[in-house]
């Protein structure tokens, strides 16, 4: 009787099961790829872009890029398409860069600075090109900084910032009123501490009493636009309160692990692309995701918000060129930017927690810090908890 190799009971079943697992895995991978492709296609369809004509080749994947990078963020006060609640149809014409920020991330991606530019800053505008029309806008002297957007769109804002900082803008975004509202909803509100009540009918900001509130929707926009409700009622005080908001936003995004949650990131990117104009280098969804991955790992204590240095000039301000050179030198050479309690500016104070009451430890620690910035540079790091001072 001939013999045949023994068969292990169940082997055919194991092979079939193995093949099924491989097939299921392949289907899952295909579904994920298709879903990601659809998501990217939808985001791409949302985007309005402008070409800033940067001389530098922007990296396609920021998180894999070994160099530093800059991101220009412009908050527009344009009413076109924003609805009657923002003044559409009134005598408000054009669009100004109501908020202008420049984010710089260092080469090793472990330090970042955000510079806020006063909208009342009088500057000498360079020649610039409106990217949407190709029209060359001639330069002008002693023009208020927030007129850049109306002069020639995002390209002229970038040119103005480049003239003030010596940078070459690779990435830029212009966001609308509605974009601010929707983004604040998407992140679930931003916690902001107030020293007292605020009633600012000009912006619509209503804060009933001292305390910390999650600002969301129209109240978030009203807060960011409020000038007469905070500090000394100036735009410079408004910058301080905006930096309180941004610090709270960064802490919340890191605490909620938003930067590493693809679903949350998609929601934010969806809102951003629908309500923004992006430079062509920034418009690639993969670039936005890789940039978010980079920001996710930034230490809060090494993320600093500062105001561009200025000197008084009547009821406006002008650039303090010497102080700006010192500040920008710190950023360019990747030095830490340290600000003590005397550099908080006009619109905020250090938040006191209940355990700090009657304890001078926090004040002593602040006093022991040696500031590295010029005397007239104000700001804070993202890990500092500060409160808005009412007007």
Automatic annotation (TrEMBL):
Residues 382-391 have a biased composition (Basic and acidic residues). PANTHER family: POLYISOPRENYL-TEICHOIC ACID--PEPTIDOGLYCAN TEICHOIC ACID TRANSFERASE TAGU (PTHR33392). Signal peptide: none annotated. Keywords: Membrane, Transmembrane, Transmembrane helix. It comes from the Bacteria. Residues 352-367 have a biased composition (Acidic residues). It holds the Pfam family LytR_cpsA_psr. Residues 345-391 are annotated as: Disordered. Residues 96-254 form the Cell envelope-related transcriptional attenuator domain. The chain crosses the membrane at residues 21-41. This is LCP family protein. Belongs to the LytR/CpsA/Psr (LCP) family.
